[in-house]
Amino acid sequence: xxxxxxxxxxxxxxxxxxxxxxxxxxxxxxxxxxxxxxxxxxxxxxxxxxxxxxxxxxxxxxxxxxxxxxxxxxxxxxxxxxxxxxxxxxxxxxxxxxxxxxxxxxxxxxxxxxxxxxxxxxxxxxxxxxxxxxxxxx
Length: 138
Description:
The chain has one domain: Oxidized Rhodanese, domain 1 (3-Layer(aba) Sandwich), CATH 3.40.250. The longest helix has 20 residues, at 2-21. The protein is built from four helices and six strands; from the N terminus they run αββαβββαβα. It has helices at residues 2-21, 42-50, 102-113, 125-131, and strands spanning 28-32, 35-40, 55-58, 72-73, 94-97, 119-122. Strands 1-2-6-5-3-4 form a six-stranded mixed beta sheet.
């Protein structure tokens, strides 16, 4: 009886491990001077928001609206002066976006220079978000 129970537990464990190990990785890695970050599509971000485990920052200036569940609004050129608004842990998962991606790339460069290691960016920013027929909050 104990042997059958142990075998069942082992098979369940192997099955769960297989499911987790086979999950596709979100986004595409981009390597830059100072480190790397991941770029996600609108559809991938929508999936990530279903079980949100990251800080989302709108770095666009001037402000034109937020994607729902945005945590912080912080202009890309004000990051170094406002480190207190960012997670203290340098390996915290942080996703940044702006209108099209240009300011987000600059923000990511600043964050990499500050030692952050788990950075993500929405490809196409709020422009791509709205083109995919999702709403922004104004």
